[in-house]
Design brief:
Layout lengths: L6 H17 L3 H4 L9 E5 L7 H8 L4 E6 L2 H13 L5 E5 L11 E7 L9 H10 E10 L5 H9 L4 E6 L4 E5 L1
Parallel strand pairs: 1-2, 1-4, 2-3, 4-5
Antiparallel strand pairs: 5-7, 6-7
Length: 175
């Protein structure tokens, strides 16, 4: 599992991500995933909340975003984003793995810039597998890892198979 970042580390990451997001909006990545209005999405390792606003718009009023992070600062920042943008379809989960959500609730799970931080991805992949609907998709993106490393880390669990590779994302289906 990953450890929670210090306040300074989180603040630095938040600042650099806000600059990144200005030049490279997160919508461009999310457009590859296939998220639709009414979908339920888990943003596993939501960090400073770069995906919250575009996701909330994509799923609309009937959809739901679950933003999970181990760091209380991430949850606090996410709640500020939610309040500022008057989002009613976002729920935050402070956890390193367990979501306490019911089985088969999620249409899409996002594991973005998180996989490289996991010493053992198995518990998280097991939780995501449990949460995904039978045709649910796990979408990965991690600029710290080669694409082949992402595919190996996710598929070696035996729970997921490569569904498709896009320009910015790698998507996996439940086995």
């Amino acid at each position: 599992m990953a450890e929670s970042q210090s306040k300074f580390g989180f603040s630095l990451m938040s600042f650099t991500f806000s600059i990144r997001d200005l030049f490279f909006p997160r919508d461009n990545i999310l457009d590859e995933v296939g998220i639709n209005e009414g979908d339920f999405v888990l943003d596993f390792g939501c960090g400073p909340g770069s995906y919250i606003v575009p996701l909330a718009k994509m799923v609309g009023e009937k959809g739901r975003i679950y933003a999970l992070d181990i760091n209380p600062l991430a949850i606090e920042r996410g709640r500020k984003i939610m309040s500022k943008n008057r989002l009613l379809n976002v729920q935050f989960i402070l956890s390193d793995c367990d979501t306490l959500l019911p089985d088969g609730r999620i249409d899409f799970a996002l594991l973005y810039d998180t996989l490289h931080d996991l010493s053992d991805p198995a518990p998280i992949l097991n939780e995501i597998y449990r949460l995904l609907k039978p045709r649910g998709i796990l979408s990965c993106n991690d600029h710290h890892l080669k694409r082949s490393e992402i595919i190996a880390k996710v598929t070696e669990s035996g729970l997921f198979e490569l569904s498709d590779e896009r320009k910015k994302t790698i998507n996996f289906a439940r086995v």
